[in-house]
Design a protein that fits this description.
The chain is α/β, with parallel strands linked by helices. The chain has 18 helices and 31 strands. It has 3 domains: 109 residues, no CATH class; 288 residues, Nitrilase/N-carbamoyl-D-aminoacid amidohydrolase; 202 residues, Nucleoside Triphosphate Pyrophosphohydrolase (Alpha-Beta Complex), CATH 3.90.79. Helices cover 27% and strands 23% of the residues. Keywords: Hydrolase, Magnesium, Manganese, Metal-binding.
């Protein structure tokens, strides 16, 4: 080892030699590492070496003077086992030369280690990603003799799998996971009747595929759109929810500017030729990454035996491919029961897998909780398991159960993993917010089947229930279609709408305002009107505003009365032309559930509370924060929201000063 250290210029190779000594003499290392005298001698020797080493990040090779200092420290043991010095020197090289390890591995990509070879080991700083304390130290759970922060020696696990470290996405996937990332699992199917099961649920079955590919594509497109609309940048579809053609067609989603950055397009059964006389049946997962033209693939090697007997023929030596990113994420794909193999879970942990995306098709996700918790605990991993369908049945017994729709693993969860259970087996989307570990279920929305728009002005809810100030607002707004829509000139802004819902109260009119979640990219922790872009399924701004209010806060459109449209506002930075839709309700009804991925609370804000602020003539003060409402802490007010409320206050103040005339 001394001869190798004396001549080796690559830091990662020298580090490997030192870690080999630590592995070979681990008993001595454990016995003597707690001895105060030995620790003091080792510290003194290593300090001399540290003085001769360059600062971290400044050198790429071990210069002769550095190599001489390393050898001298190991030769000057003076009764101290050299393994103690080797362990301390390994940590020092890792600290000073760790920046050279990734380029070393990248030059060898795809890198397939043998037993005893160095393995890249790194973890992103979770303090920059999550808002809670992690369940283990940021870079490792325990003090390992054969690892440092950036490198671990490969064990026997690399002979059980064809382990490959792939750096082809090193820069492309940089920043794919941050504090604002939302991971979504999409669930397109209700029950097994939506699949073709060639052998039923009792005989060997191949292939399993969606019964109606066109309908399945439409359903998946809508769920991906719903997921990305909720902020998801990583989307996972379930096992066998696609055909090969359908999976390839989903590539277009990562090419769209509003699409996900990573899309695991489920998995599919395929039959590939081995030679002229034979073929192999496979279950293949496919994933698409923005900026990368080729799919990521993974073949399942653990066939299902119930409730569907999966007739596939996996290779005898399965591959475990780890995609390493510049910021320390190790992305891997697994298919359903592959994650229940203890050896596979150990290999994933040893390989540093910390972003594990899993398409599944199982009658229960309960057994997956242990493996997921292991990955979270040892590697601080983020895990997303997408299950399908929502209901399991067979010919003899009918409905046999409703499994969990998804399973998420996150370092901030108390049990390190959590199942997503839903009362209804219909399609939907499960969301995991990385910063807060918040989990949300969104049932599949169907805008085309939304209730009709609220009644026109002529159908007041109750005679005499409408306050007099509504008349002033009616005179200053218009009903859609009551006047020409514009001059016909081309406008390069996308139409959008917000619902300005007014209610009555002892102090006059109030406004219902949702408070946005703190981890959203747009308007985090701000009070804003519910709303969004006018979609193709909307008949206009009114329909869009009511639809968005229904999706965001569960508002029943039948419980509000339309007052009219205010003048649209152009938002050049975001590219929208926003129509404020004014509505009134004595008692707004929330029939649906609040979308907790976007909304943390609902506030009723008295409109005239803002009058004194407006008199100050200081726009920044007006846009600063709102009074505390219903005991809540003050929250900032969105700029456009503040501008609309200022207009409303001005109209009502003018009406009051003129005795009701305008």
């Amino acid at each position: 080892m001394l001869a190798a250290v004396a001549h080796e210029t690559e830091p990662v190779v020298t580090l490997t030699h030192l870690l080999h000594l630590c592995r070979d003499e681990h008993r001595v290392l454990w016995e003597r590492s707690g001895d105060p005298h030995s620790a003091g001698v080792v510290m003194a020797l290593v300090s001399k070496v540290a003085d001769k080493l360059p600062p971290p990040g400044t050198a790429t090779v071990l210069e002769p003077s550095v190599r001489e200092a390393l050898v001298a420290a190991l030769e000057q043991a003076d009764g101290i086992p050299p393994v103690l010095i080797a362990r301390a020197l390994a940590g020092l090289i890792d600290e000073r030369y760790g920046h050279t390890f990734a380029p070393w591995f990248r030059r060898r990509s795809p890198y397939q280690p043998a037993v005893g070879d160095p393995v890249p080991l790194d973890t992103p700083d979770l303090r920059q990603v999550t808002a809670m304390r992690s369940t283990s130290p940021p870079w490792r759970l325990a003090h390992r003799l054969d690892e440092t922060r950036h490198v671990r020696l490969a064990g026997e696990w690399v002979v059980q799998f064809r382990v490959v470290f792939d750096y082809s996405l090193f820069d492309i996937l940089s920043g794919a996971v941050n504090a604002d990332t939302v991971i979504a699992t999409c669930h397109p199917n209700r029950d097994l009747r939506e699949f073709n099961l060639t052998g039923g649920t009792s005989d060997r079955t191949f292939p399993v595929r969606p019964r109606e590919a066109g309908r399945q594509r439409t359903e998946i497109d809508h769920l991906i759109e719903q997921a990305t609309g909720a902020g998801a940048s990583i989307v996972v579809l379930p096992e066998l929810s696609v055909t090969e053609v359908l999976a390839e067609g989903l590539h277009e989603w990562v090419r769209r500017p509003d699409g996900p950055r990573v899309l695991v397009a489920g998995s599919y059964h395929q039959q590939t030729p081995v030679d002229d006389a034979s073929s192999r049946r496979r279950n293949t997962a496919i994933a698409w990454v923005r900026g990368h033209d080729y799919p990521l693939t993974h073949d399942k090697y653990s066939p299902a035996d119930r409730p569907v007997v999966e007739d596939i023929q996996p290779d005898g030596w399965p591959e475990l491919r780890v995609y390493v990113t510049a910021d320390g994420w190790h992305l891997t794909l697994a298919i359903c029961r592959d994650l229940l193999n203890p050896q596979a879970v150990n290999a994933l942990s040893e390989a540093g897998a910390n972003l594990v995306l899993v398409p599944a098709m199982s009658e229960t996700l309960m057994p997956f909780g242990g493996p997921v918790a292991h990955l979270v605990g040892t590697r601080q991993a983020l895990v997303a398991v997408a299950n399908n369908p929502g209901e399991w049945a067979d010919e003899a017994h009918g409905v046999s159960g409703r499994p969990a729709r998804a399973l998420f693993g996150h370092p901030g969860l108390g049990q390190q993993s959590r199942l997503v259970q839903t009362p209804d087996p219909g399609p939907g989307v499960a969301l995991l917010t990385v910063r807060s570990a918040a989990i949300t279920w969104l049932p599949r929305t169907r805008p085309t089947r939304m209730p009709p728009a609220a009644a026109p002005r002529s159908s007041s809810p109750t005679p005499g229930s409408r306050p007099p100030w509504l008349a002033a607002l009616e005179r200053r707004t218009h009903i859609p279609g009551a006047h020409p829509s514009g001059s016909g000139e081309t406008v390069q802004l996308r139409p959008a709408a917000v619902l300005v819902l007014l209610t009555g109260g002892p102090s006059g009119p109030g406004v219902l305002l949702p408070e946005r979640a703190a981890d959203l990219t747009d308007y985090p922790s701000q009070l804003v009107f519910p709303g969004g872009a006018v979609d193709a399924c909307d008949s206009g701004p009114v329909a869009a505003a009511l639809r968005e209010a229904h999706e965001e806060i569960g508002l029943d459109p039948h419980s509000v009365e339309l007052i009219g449209l205010m003048e649209p506002m152009a938002l050049p930075r975001s590219g929208f032309l926003v129509y404020p839709v004014l509505a009134w309700s004595t008692d707004p009804v929330l029939t649906g559930s609040v979308n907790h991925a976007e909304v943390t609370a609902l506030h009723h804000v008295p409109l005239l509370n803002f009058a004194d602020w407006g008199a100050l003539g200081d726009v920044s003060r007006f846009h600063g924060s709102t009074p505390a409402v219903d005991g809540a802490e003050p929250a900032s007010l969105g700029r456009m929201t503040a501008a609309v409320m200022d207009q409303l206050r001005g109209i009502l103040s003018h009406t009051k000063s003129t005795g009701g005339r305008s």
